[in-house]
Structure formats: C-alpha cells, structure tokens
Design goal:
By secondary structure, this protein is of the alpha/beta class. The protein has helices spanning 13-24, 66-69, 123-133, 147-160, 176-184, 200-213, 230-234, 242-253, 306-327, 334-340, 350-361, and strands at 4-9, 49-56, 91-93, 137-140, 163-166, 188-190, 217-227, 265-272, 279-289, 295-305, 331-332.
C-alpha cells in the first residue's frame, strides 16, 4: 500500500516521538509491537506513514532534514529510535503569529527556542508547500495558547484540501463555525487536544467514571501536573492556558454523575521543573462519599514520558483520518475525535468512545 503522507506543524518533542515511532515499528511485527492500541487500521501499519513536509520557527530546525531536526534542541524527549535515515524533507520556516510565548526567550538554549532569521511565509506559500509535497494530512503540534497560529494553519488545510488533526487545545473541531467549514469542503478533521495513551486526563476520566458506576459521590478533585519540556515552560504564561484548562476540565466533567462546581475541581498544568525534561508527573486527588455518607479519598502519583505517551494515539488518528479520506467522508470524525481527544465536539464515556471508534474503523459512519 502507498504510505499515508503527512505534513507536520511544529517539530518539537511530540513530532520527534511520532517520527521515531514510525521507524521503530518498521522492525516489529504484530506479535511484538508493544505500546500500540492497533497494529493495523484499514490495512495500514504504524510504519505506513511518511512525513513529506514540516514547518517550525527555531533556527536549529529550519533548513535541516526533518529526521535531524527532531533531535535538535530544545527537544528533550527520550530517544528510543536513533537510527533514522535522512528523509530528504527540509524543515520550512513557519508562520510565527502567537506561536511562541513572550517569556520563552529569557531561558537558556537548552530549554527555549532560538528564532530563525528566515522570512515568514504567507498563507499562499504554506498552502503551495503542502500541496506540492503531496501531503494528505496536516498534523498540528503547535504550543498551547497559539490561538492565531492554529487558526492560520486550519485555514491552510482547508485551502490545500488536506485532512486536519488538531492535537492542541485551540478549539477548531469543537468550534461550530470551523466544523462547518470542514464539512462544507468535505474535508475530515479530528480534534481537539490529543489524549495521551495513559496520561493524567485519561486516568482521571476513568477513575471519575468508576466513581459514578460504583455509586461513589465525587465531591472534589484536583489534578496537578509538572514537567520540564518546552510545553510546560510555554505554559508558565497563564494567559495562554485558557483553552487548555477548559479542555482538561471538561474532559473530566463530562463523565461525572453530577457536574462539580468550579471551586471543587482544579485541573491544569502547575509548574515547570527543568530537570524533569520530557517526564510529566501528575498528582491526583479525588474526595468522595461511600455507603452511609462515609468519606473516602484517593491520592495518586503518575509519572510518564510525555511525548511518546501521545505519539501512539496520533498514529491511530492519522490512520483513521486516512480511512475517512479513502471513504469520501468529510467534516468532524465524531467517533475518533471522542476517543483520541480531550475536547471533541461530542463527549462520550471512554468505553462508548472506544466501541464507536472500533465501529468506525470497520466501516460504520460515525
């Protein structure tokens, strides 16, 4: 089968893990493919994906082969597949807009970006680059808070006629106006804000759903997260966190039996700890009442490598959106969005989302 051709916006830790994974599983088979939700979707394995275009704004990445750029600073994620051949795909200069927080330049080069001195492209140049590359799917890995930049690239996807996966918490798929634009063009979209394979939000959701199913009244909860990658450094700017907090909070609120009051739920990034690098630590507490109004609580600490934790989910999202392209399905992919993303247009419990997504893979339109 021909590979699924993708373009990537933002060659950071998440893109690094995704590309490493594509090559890592080339040496695996279904019997030893640890860490995947699906080995095969619609005839495509994880290694049937090819990066044909890439955009970034860091001087150490722009102009480099994308397979070299994924290991450039400030990327700090685990290297689990270092032996990757040159791709012959050069990282292009992207559009900056609000894609970088003002405070980022105050940190050393191991932590932050160094702005490229290459002229920024306009919309037509980006659209032309995507179309000439042969990309079928545009994968968005822009930083949290990049409201203008995410909308810019969503518009480029529409003009280029390519499918769009919005991995970030800027609301495109869950915004009715944007959703209608993709439906009108019959272009598939998955979003918004990718869930990790086994991260803080999916764990929090599953425990919240367990409370509901076991008759435990959830009274209050928090989820505090720390990390040392550029995502956490970027999020030190609280003004960039509005959509992120909504996305993570609504992911949990959507599976509570009774919606919690705002002062009884706190979910969001908490601090930047440089030495953690791409390791993300979640501190989770849930307080409730059991039979007879007897109180109980859970406290949990979860530690994961942040970027590989989302890469496997993105690999499945890419293959699902390719199925939609091959089937002529456009607009919101409701089932994949609900299973893969924190803030889809329509929320389901994870059990229902999984069943709907499996039905979609096997040919039902959802």
């Amino acid at each position: 089968m021909k590979p699924i051709k993708i373009a990537i916006i933002g060659i950071g830790n998440c893109a690094s893990s995704l590309i490493q994974g594509i090559h890592y599983y080339r040496n695996k088979g279904p019997e030893d493919a640890i860490g995947l939700m699906h080995w095969e979707i619609g005839g495509f394995s994880p290694c049937d994906i090819e990066v044909v275009a890439a955009f970034d704004i860091d001087r150490r990445k722009v102009g480099q082969d994308v397979h070299t750029a994924i290991f450039a600073k400030p990327n700090c994620t685990t290297v689990f597949c270092a032996d990757i051949p040159a791709s012959d795909v050069t990282v292009r200069m992207g559009k900056i807009l609000d894609g970088i927080a003002d405070h980022m330049s105050a940190y050393d080069e191991d932590a932050t970006f160094i702005a490229a001195d290459t002229p920024e492209p306009d919309e037509d140049e980006v659209v032309t680059a995507i179309m000439e590359s042969g990309a079928e799917v545009l994968v968005n890995y822009l930083p949290v808070g990049s409201e203008q930049a995410v909308r810019f690239y969503a518009g480029c996807a529409l003009k280029a006629g390519v499918a769009y996966i919005n991995n970030m918490p800027v609301f495109i798929a869950s915004n009715p106006e944007w959703a209608q634009k993709f439906a009108d063009r019959n272009i598939p979209i998955i979003g918004d804000d990718i869930k990790s394979q086994l991260g803080a939000t999916i764990t929090h959701r599953m425990l919240t759903d367990l409370f509901r199913k076991r008759g435990v009244k959830l009274e209050r909860t928090y989820q505090l997260n720390t990390g040392g990658n550029t995502d956490f450094l970027n999020m030190l700017s609280r003004k960039r966190l509005a959509s992120k907090k909504i996305s993570k909070t609504e992911a949990v609120q959507s599976v509570t039996e009774t919606r919690l009051q705002d002062n009884n739920i706190h979910i969001g990034p908490s601090d930047y700890v440089p030495w953690q690098k791409d390791n993300k630590v979640c501190f989770l507490r849930m307080e409730g009442k059991l039979f007879g109004d007897v109180p109980m609580h859970i406290e949990m600490r979860l530690s994961v490598e942040d970027s590989p934790n989302s890469a496997g989910v993105t690999i499945d999202a890419i293959r699902c959106i390719k199925l939609a392209l091959d089937r002529g399905i456009g607009g919101i992919l409701e089932a994949p969005s609900a299973y893969f993303c924190k803030h889809p247009p329509k929320q389901f419990t994870d059990d229902d989302a999984f069943q709907n997504m499996e039905r979609f893979i096997h040919g039902e339109t959802l």
